[in-house]
Amino acid sequence: MSTSDRRGLHKLLTEDIWERYCDFDPRCFELSDAEIVGERLRHSLGSRLAHWLQVTLMTVLVVTGYALWSGNYGPMNVPIWDGYYVAFGLHMWAGIFIVVVTLLLFPFYHVFVDGHRQLAEYSDIVLGINIGLAFLGVREYPPNYHKGRRTWDVIKEHWMVGHPAQKAYFWWISIFVALVALTGFGIYREMATDPVWWVVWLGIPADYLAVETLKQLHLVLAAVITAMVIFHAYFGVMKSNWDFLKSMVVGTVPYYEVESPTEDGDD
Ligand code: HEM
Q1: Residue 236 near residue 245, CB atoms below 8 Å
Q2: Whose CA is nearest to atom 39 of ligand 1?
Q3: Which of 20, 10, 42 is nearest to 162 (CA)?
Q4: Which of 28, 59, 169, 207 has its CA 20 to 30 A from that of 149?
């Protein structure tokens, strides 16, 4: 039985989401005197390679996508090939690879190898409301929240808390990458004279939408993804997150520990 079933929607809406996170999760207070105990692996080599591959592919897609959209090919305008063909080839290959990396490779390492749980849990909802209100300046951040994200719970064998926006980012980036790829393959299927079977299959939206509509959707989705990545990168490079940024390079992060059982045994 999940924690949310046990606690009930009524209790969530009437009590828990209004509570300060630390009243809900007493492990917060335990952290006041906590000291760093060492370095712990946060991102395996596979995750790190897949993550930075995503960054590279995303950069190629944005640069070549802008070139195709605007007709300015810059250094891609080399003799022999026209800039259009260089940009088009790079865009197609980067598009194919980012689907594989974002929808298969990265989730495999991040979720199954590194054990970062990505499903929304009861505590995420309570924490999300707390963090959202704190971000708006209406409430203070839960005490020791910064430490909590760097704390290993030795009983649950998991990081004590995550950032709800990061979990949401994981899902939304996957959904939008899938949609942008489907619209892209739809456009390609309409342009190609004899598309290979998997392009026909992935370009299925072309059965239902005009190529002009597909192009508009592709452009809007690309803009949304770019904006999301800019925000994600902005938070990633903030000084307060440099240890996490470093962990995306070296794998490990300096961490704290908690040992106390919480009311919920399983979240
Ligand atoms: C220069 C750009 C980027 C920077 C600086 C950056 C930085 C980071 C950092 C530091 C983390 C680890 C956070 C943690 O340990 O809790 C992370 C996680 C992640 N990044 Fe990036 N990133 C960038 C671009 C991207 C791109 C382009 C994508 C996907 C298209 C992406 C997808 C993700 C995902 C899905 C996670 C895991 C989030 C989670 O569930 O915890 N990142 N990123």
Answers
A1: yes
A2: 166
A3: 42
A4: 59
